[in-house]
Amino acid sequence: MSDGGEAKAYYPVFLDLAARPAIVIGGGEAAEKRARALLRLGADVVVIAADPTPGLLELEADGGIATEQRGYVRGDLEGAFIAFCLSADEEVRRAVSDEAEERGCLVNVAGDPELCSFIVPSVVRRGGLQIAVSTGGASPEVAHRVRRRIAGEFGEEWGAYVALLAEVRQLAAERVAAGEDVSGDVFESVADSDLLERLQAGERPSAADVLDSAAGETASGE
């Protein structure tokens, strides 16, 4: 918290963790959840815990992560890009934060924003669409409530919508590479169209259908 009780200001950012070393310190259910999330993002995950959960051991047996069944020691963050500390031991928490600061490693110490270089937002995920909510650590409960409200506004159809838009953009790039004249205005036309409503109604148009329709509307409006 900053002076005057105001929440600390953070820069919102989405990180590419694919193939990056990620360290999780702690072996409880929260550590397992974090390790699974990092694994889904393609990170190289190492969990350091004296008593890892059965789920963490299963992940290691499957080759998804590595575990070291011991407590944290200084030097564990060498080469790490990002670290998460979920230990309840205050001395460990501060030591992890200090080492991360010295090594330039991003670190999140659960429940203590003052020991973090970043905080984990509450997130609504709809396929490629991600909406992150944060109160700067002032009230995670409020962030969760806002997330639930947003989740009610953005249904699962948004995942299909974003995926289809990605296909449309890729198809347009392929057509341009093939020498076709594709106006940039077609993307505005797609965004202004009733495509989302059509997906909500159960329609599944192809990227070619969407792009051709938008191109036609753009040409007729010129």
Q: Structural class of the helix and strand makeup? A: alpha/beta
Order of helical and strand elements: EHEHEEHEEEHHHHH
CATH overall fold name of the largest domain: Rossmann fold
Principal-axis shape equals elongated
Relative strand content: 5-15%
CATH class of the largest domain, named Alpha Beta
* Number of domains as seen in the coordinates: 2
Can you characterise this structure?
This protein has helices at 29-40, 54-61, 90-103, 140-153, 157-177, 185-192, 195-200, 207-220, and strands at 21-25, 44-48, 66-68, 82-85, 106-109, 122-126, 129-133. By secondary structure, it is an alpha/beta fold. The chain has two domains: 3-120, NAD(P)-binding Rossmann-like Domain (Rossmann fold), CATH 3.40.50.720; 157-220, no CATH class. The protein has a five-stranded parallel β-sheet with strand order 3-2-1-4-5, sandwiched between helices. It has a two-stranded antiparallel ribbon with strand order 6-7.
Quick structural gist:
By secondary structure, the chain is α/β, with parallel strands linked by helices.
Descriptive labels:
222 residues, 7 strands, two-stranded antiparallel sheet, Rossmann fold
Task: Record the SSE blueprint.
Blueprint: E1 21-25, H1 29-40, E2 44-48, H2 54-61, E3 66-68, E4 82-85, H3 90-103, E5 106-109, E6 122-126, E7 129-133, H4 140-153, H5 157-177, H6 185-192, H7 195-200, H8 207-220
Parallel strand pairs: 1-2, 1-4, 2-3, 4-5
Antiparallel strand pairs: 6-7
